[in-house]
Amino acid sequence: MKRVLLIRLDKIGDLISTMCVDQAELLENCDLRWVISKGLGFIPDNALPKRQHLDLSKDDWKNSLKILIAHIHEFKPDVAISFQAPWWVSYALWLTKVPVRAGVQSQWHSFIFLNKGLRQRRSLAIQHEADYNFDLLRFALDDISKPRPPTPTLELIAPENSDLLKQHQLTSKYYVTVHPGMAGSALNWSPKNYIELIEKLRAKIMVVITGTAADEPFLKEIKDHFKFDHVSHLVLLQGKLTAEELFTILKNSKAVIAPSTGVAHMAASLGVKTIGLYSPIQVQHPRRWAARGEKVKIFVSKNEHPPYNFCMDEISVDDVFAEAIKDE
Questions:
Q1: Looking at the predicted structure, is the pLDDT value of residue 305 above 90?
Q2: Other Cβ atoms within 10 Å of 226 Cβ, number
Q3: Residue 51 burial (CB count, 10 A)
Q4: Class of domain 2-140
Q5: I want to staple 89 with a disulfide (CB 3.0 to 4.6 A). Which of 85, 105, 156, 257 is the partner?
Q6: Is 148 left (phi over 0), alpha (psi -120 to 50) or beta?
Q7: Do domains 2-140 and 162-325 have the same CATH topology?
């Protein structure tokens, strides 16, 4: 049985757009292990099927390097594929003499430590991130000459937790989740638009607002507007959910509305109606970064040329509202 080590040390959306490729038919008889960023273990742990994984901290790279080297010696991979990782990961693969060390041929270390590099100009965003990752996988496993099958999608499962819904007075499929926050790697809707949308939604249905402490810059104006003192049909769950509890909240939503961030990818992989708000800028475009799933609706400005100052406002609040409350 061929042993394959798959590596992606990146954010949630990136990992979801990469982990899906291990469902490819060419890996059916392989022993697979993932190397991912510390703190993201809830993704492979709640995937179907569950994945084996090693979690590494990019901040403590010296210790992570030692752990990775020990893991490689134990696993003895025939092939290692680095979808995205810092230099010390490529170095570890070279140092431990992994026979096939594949990855994107881009940064300096990919030319020195990898022996099977594929040149991909992902910044052109001519296809989805998952498609780029699938192409790299097929290249690494010498499958590139065969007809290209469709890129797989990742399926996530949410824990059953009826007590959580009761705690926040929520009924499955009778609320809409709005997640305004993001890491800031793309353009976002303005707080004004989110406020207008939430006002329209809560007149029709319960609304849940999610986020973490890191999302405060996007949530502050929204929270200041609503005050959250006896506001009807509105629940603020910022900082109140574990990753698994967030999965449960997302899975039971009638719809999830989010910008280009990990929550959109999670909701889509959970099979929930997911409404994504995307930037038209080439490197941020949904052609590359859209959430993927059967129930995904993408909104993006049609103006793909600068200036981009007000391009996100071209996404209509009324259109997003209509999609969110529409019955499936």
A1: no
A2: 16
A3: 19
A4: alpha beta
A5: 85
A6: beta
A7: yes
Token pair 């007149």 in the structure block, residue: 203
**pLDDT tens across 111-158, in order?**
999 999 999 999 999 999 999 999 999 999 999 888 899 999 999 999
State the fold for domain 162-325: Rossmann fold (3.40.50)
Orientation angle between helical segments 262-269 and 243-251, nearest 10 degrees: 60
Give the SS3 label for residue 320.
helix
- Cα-based distances in Å from 174 to 122, 208, 224, 238: 39, 11, 25, 20
DSSP 58-112: STTHHHHHHHHHHHHHHH--SEEEEEE--HHHHHHHHHTT-SEEEEES-SHHHHH
Taking the C-alpha atoms of residue 86 and residue 100, their distance in angstroms, rounded to an integer, is 18
Size of the chain, expressed as the number of residues it contains: 328
pTM reported for the whole predicted model: 0.96
**Cβ atoms 167, 177 nearer than 8 A:** no
Quote the tokens at residue 289.
């970064």
Query: What pLDDT, on a 0 to 100 scale, did the predictor assign at position 145?
Result: 81
In sign, the C-alpha dihedral spanning 104, 110, 111, 113 is negative
pLDDT in tens, 28-56: 999 999 999 999 999 999 999 999 999 99
Pair 21, 130: CB distance under 8 Å: yes
| Residue 231 confidence class, pLDDT cut points 50, 70, 90 | confident
The domain limits of the chain are 2-140, 162-325
